[in-house]
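re: that chain from earlier
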Amino acid sequence: ERRTEERPKLKEDLDDGDKEKTKRMRLVKTERTLDIPEGVTVKMSGRKITVSGPRGELKRDFNHVAKIDLHHDKENNKIVAAMYFPTSKITSALRSTCSNISNLFDGVLYGFEYKMRAVYAHFPININIDEKKGDIVEIRNFLGEKRPRKCKMLPGVKAERSSDVKDQIVLTGNDIDNVSKSCALIHDSCLVKKKDIRKFLDGMYVSEKRVMKPDE
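^ sequence. v structure.
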């Protein structure tokens, strides 16, 4: 019986699937840099970052982000975020981390402002806010219900009634996470139950959000 040895595949012999595999190359390093604004001081310990500015101090811990390397370049006044041998899925976390740090800079410099409006068809929604601290929002007469709904604002968030627009409240704070979560608490407190939400649109909704820059 005659034996035939298979010769190694040449480049022209490869099918489309094998050719695609040969084209792929492993990404060695991906990197993003963030300029530290004037008036902001940064302290870093590993993946823990503390940002201080005119409006106060904010802290973040990025230990949950896999494969990320954070470095404070004091000479160039920058923060360098890098990942080595990342997959495409992990690479997306790099941009999210940089966005979080950028929000810390905006928070300690300018602060964040979210506006919410009451929407109702028949029963007017009554909103009461603690005038001294502004940390409790009370919603009454939602869909004609007698039960009041009380929402405690997260730390560092202050709520106040809008002076120029009816049925509008303004939430301000340095931490964008706490401001947005406080809005979510108010929105979730008056969700329509056991009715068609396409017809019953009553509730509290975010109408505007912005960074409180002085030139805007």
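The mean pLDDT is 88.
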